[in-house]
Amino acid sequence: MRARAPRLATAAALAFTVLAGAMAPATAAGPREDAAATTQAATAVVQDGPSQEDLPVFEYQGVITDKETMSYNPTNEYIFPAVFHAGAHLEDPLAEWYLYLGPHDAPGGIVLMYSDSLAGPWTEYEGSPVIANEWGEHYSVSHVATPEPFWHPEEDELYLYFHGENTTTRYATSSDGIHFEYGGEAVTTAQGGPGITETSYARVFEHPDADSPYAYAMFYMDNTPQNIRRIRVAESHDGREWDVRPDPLVVPGAAEGQNVSSANLWEWEGQLYVIYHASSGKIHARTVNDALTETGPTWTLHEASGVGDDTGRVAAPDIVTDETGTYLFYESGDRLGATIKYAKLNPDAVREPAPGTDPDPLRQQCSGAASDEFDGAALDADLWSAGVRTDASAHELRDGSLVLPTYRAGVGGAPLLLQDLPDGAWEVTTELSISPDQSFQQAGLLLYADDANYAKLDLVHGSQGLRLEYILRRGGSDRNTGFDSVVPGAGLGETFWLRLTSDGDTAVASVSFDGETFEPWGRPVDLGALSPTAVGPFAMRGATDAAEIEASFAWLRWTPTAAEQEACEGGLVIPEIPDDDETSAPGKASLRTTSGWATGLHDGSFEVLVDLWWGTNGSVLALYENGELIAVENLELATPRAQSLRVPVSGRPNGTYTYTATLINSQGGTQTQPVTVVVDDAEPGRAQLSHDNWDGDGAFTVTANLWWGTNATSYRILEDGVVVAEGPLVAATPGAQRATATVSGRAPGTYTYVAELTNAAGTTASAPVKVTVRR
């Protein structure tokens, strides 16, 4: 069976009994071992609790499908491994474990392999494919693929789900796991809603929600009219007829790219996860509640190490346990050139901690010497000496920004403003504002070797709309796949931030949509192969008829070297205390804050009040926040009269901040008692959604009202996970804010709307509102 770690009981857990494989680490395979027949459900809290560091480490073991020795190999590629515990359910199996997989490209076909151990070796069943792309009167399709075995506990029979075409997930039944009878269609695109074009890559398991009226659940992948693939949930009473939920469970974010696919349910140390692969080329994990309605942040569960054969994309995870350990089965390699590999959980391995919060993500407080704020009358010729065709440059320095036109040329013809690359490691970041709306209008950062060899990180309007891309061009040919050119998603605004980072050997790209959090983008570029010499901003539109638009770069900043950082941090120090007439150290001041005074909101903007009511004065005040020096103020001595100071603090995100202050004179320093501020209102308040679709005709307005609370600076209104309205807001905390989305032309059905309010501290989503269109 697909074993799982035992679920831990919590104070809020609900007890219920499940049969085997109900929530196996991936999909259900059959009745649970007797020792685990009764367990407790994890709580539905998905935002608190585990972190990425709590996920286990899987170490690469090897290849299962050796393409040179496989008998059934029509297309030289295999995808979507799915393990079934044959020995636990079948009377006379070929071995203890069955592994179903197969090619995806036509004609596809379901391949069976078997082994007495999850560690292998695995033997190919000579009669493969056990299910083909043609099946009598039932169907004739270009391919069948993605097998999903599920032991049906009520019917005591194996159900095998598979897709073919991509529009339809089907199922077949078997008593021996080898010979199958056709069952029918399980889920089709018609059940997914208007415009859905794919229904495939299904995984099936017993429903984890003890309160659900359904016995079984399914994760599967759909595809939207915008060509964005998402994870959907379907539910069933019998495993044959399925009801599809209208809202996707997982919508791809910036870290994942345009697509997410092949989702699986997995339990680890009492917490349920949805695990899946994405355009990032990695296997991701999000916490999920028992009801399969809420997910947590996106984490990376597994990626290739890059050592030996452990390279390339990883996808379609299936996690299974036997007496020899816990194993991750997955497909590895390019989308239509993959093979099946496996990794094993190392209980002694420690996952690298996720990086902490960058205290200066935009290098505003400290930047390298080659940085340029573009606030002069002309570019510094020494900084920008590596440019190409600069005599033809039409750039302007305007209002503290570098403004470039989108030249009617490509990299090989456009004027390029470039700086020399330093030796060793480096990192460069820019803030870019551009709104391309015609094909090939683009702007970004260029890593330049020559006109035929470069890498560019940019926003471009392609043939199918906006894409954020990190493209490598060598010898006049582009490396451009779904990993390198990705639809940017709903978080993109007119202004965003681009970053290139090098360790001296490779250059990786990252993008930020809020100026605080940077997400990796595209695949690394091998600097040894490219040999770039310069980097800089660019804008162009190719030899097209697209209109010329402007790209505005607010600055270009280099991350400081270690020496530059040390010098920068030395800017805030306690000065040498001058001689004075005091005969003792200062008296002990008291500390207060004004957090919450004006509105009751602890929104991260307040003052720290320092008062020495009477006693020996200090000439310098040093204020510390969580042990770090944040302010140094000079004071006038007037012993024994009172001294008072108000130090403003702003922009603090939600968290706990402890302040201490030290009064200093020539005789020494005296520290105050600490005062603590808990900031819990920095993020916007929660908007309330309403609509006016009383006549049910498909044309209506969705309104988001924040009646009172911390204000937002921007908003988004989403329909079924897709943005239908967004824009800026003027913050005037705690006053009311309002945003609307005008909707029209909706076909009959039910649509779910959510409003997101965003400020520098984060984003707050409203409760969803459903609108039913009847005509």
Q: Helices and strands in order, then pairings?
A:
Blueprint: E1 15-17, E2 38-40, E3 58-63, E4 79-84, E5 97-102, E6 111-115, E7 123-124, E8 134-135, E9 139-140, E10 145-152, E11 157-163, E12 168-174, E13 181-188, E14 199-206, E15 216-223, E16 229-236, E17 242-244, E18 260-268, E19 271-278, E20 283-287, E21 299-302, E22 314-322, E23 325-332, E24 339-345, E25 396-398, E26 401-405, E27 419-420, E28 426-433, E29 442-450, E30 453-462, E31 465-474, E32 477-479, E33 485-486, E34 495-502, E35 506-512, E36 518-526, H1 527-530, E37 534-540, E38 550-558, H2 562-569, E39 590-593, E40 606-612, E41 620-625, E42 628-634, E43 643-649, E44 655-665, E45 668-671, E46 675-679, E47 688-691, E48 700-706, E49 714-719, E50 722-728, E51 737-743, E52 749-759, E53 762-765, E54 769-773
Antiparallel strand pairs: 1-2, 3-24, 4-5, 5-6, 6-7, 8-9, 10-11, 11-12, 12-13, 14-15, 15-16, 16-17, 18-19, 19-20, 20-21, 22-23, 23-24, 25-26, 26-38, 27-37, 28-34, 28-38, 29-30, 29-37, 30-31, 31-32, 31-33, 34-35, 35-36, 39-40, 40-43, 41-42, 41-44, 44-45, 44-46, 47-48, 48-51, 49-50, 49-52, 52-53, ...
